[in-house]
Structure formats: structure tokens, C-alpha cells
Amino acid sequence: MSDNQNDKQQAGSQTSGCSQVDQDKRNFLIATSAVGALGCAAVAVPFVKSMTPSERAKAAGAPVEVDISKIQPGTMLTAEWRGQPVWIINRTEEMTAELSKHNQDLSDPASDVTSQQPEYCKNETRSIKPSIAVVVGICTHLGCSPSEKMSRGGDMGENWTGGFFCPCHGSKFDLAGRVFKGSPAPINLVVPPHKYLSDNTLLIGVDTEDKA
């Protein structure tokens, strides 16, 4: 075999080896890319799922129906609307009668701060039905949740006729959610929009068409 033929044979062998190396590299890169893509997909799925709003979040702003038939006179029930506690208070006739007797002790007895209640609750009892109060149970000072103090007297003093006391900074509210003078809370508790679907069913989150 001539030297020229040997050179061509060696060159062909080198070219074949290079082609094999390039093919191996190509196969490796393809496999690596595929694995990487799968990894990205595995990461992406939980991320996308985390961005999907939960059923609870969807319902956070939805109206809430409450059965008030089992709330005994002189007691209350707590519902949840928009992540906030809403108190439904079944006031006795005596409790309702007391509301007008301490107006001089209140910061806003006539509910003149209109942002604190809908127009149809801008009355003496701050309610649609005189016996049923509906208020958001969050203190208007710094957002604490007041404690129920619905009984007369007790640790609230002999002149106390029932209401709510905020343990954080001492704000006091009556059974219509109106704030007493001298409290850190500057305004009354909020009355949320609400309406009655029947005598025993309250819908929180929707305004009534009834007039105050």
C-alpha cells in the first residue's frame, strides 16, 4: 500500500471517529435537555397550582346565609363574612329599651358617621329588626376583637347594661355597637350590608331594599 493510500485511510478513520464523538455529544445534549424540561415541568405545576385561587378565597367575598332561629333572646351568634367575625345579637325587649337611655354617654349616639352603617340601619337600634343587631366584631381602634359583656353589672360596674369590651385598649360599645365616650375607639362598630330572606334567615353581604 502506498503512502498516499495510508494517509487517506487514516484521515477517513479520524473523520469517522469525529463523527461518532459528535453524535455521542448530540445524543447526550438531547437527553440532558429532555431531563431538564421534565424538571422544569415538575417545578412549574405546583407553582401554577399555587396561583389558582382556593375555594375559600373565592367565597371570601360572597354573601353568607345565617339561620338565626336558634339564637335565644339575650345571646348572640358569630358568623364569618369576608374573613371577619360578624355578631348577630338577639336583644331582649329590656336590652332594646336601654339603648336610648345612655345616649349622653356615647360618642356617636345617632350614628352620624355614615360610613359605619348602611342607611337602612341609621336608626335608634342600628338594625332592620329592633331585636336583632348585626355588627362586625372588630374594634375600630386597632382591629382587636372585643369580648362579649352582655350581662348587666358584673366586672363592668353597676351602671353597665350590656355590650362589648375590647381587652386590648379598653374601648366599650353598647348592644348596638355604639362606642362610649372616653374609649380609644373613635367610631362605632361597623354594621355590614345585610337583608332578611325570611323571618329566620339572614343574608350578610347584600343590602336590603327596606327603608330605615
Overview of the structural elements:
The chain has 212 residues and is of the alpha+beta class. It has 2 domains: 3-52; 59-204, Rieske Iron-sulfur Protein, CATH 2.102.10. 28% of the residues lie in helices and 18% in strands. It has 3 helices and 9 strands, in the order ααβββαββββββ. The protein has helices at residues 3-51, 55-59, 93-98, and strands at residues 64-67, 75-81, 84-90, 132-136, 147-149, 163-165, 172-174, 194-196, 201-204. The strands form 3 sheets. A 3-stranded antiparallel β-sheet has the order 1-9-8, with no helix packed on it. The protein has a 3-stranded antiparallel β-sheet with strand order 2-3-4, with no helix packed on it. Strand 2 (75-81) and strand 3 (84-90) form a beta hairpin. The longest helix has 49 residues, at 3-51. Mean pLDDT is 81; it is low at 34-54.
Q: Stretches where pLDDT falls below 50 for ≥5 residues?
A: 34-54
Helix content range: 25-40%
N-to-C CA distance: 115 Å
Mean pLDDT figure: 81
Whole-number radius of gyration? 35 Å
Helix/strand order, N-terminal first = HHEEEHEEEEEE
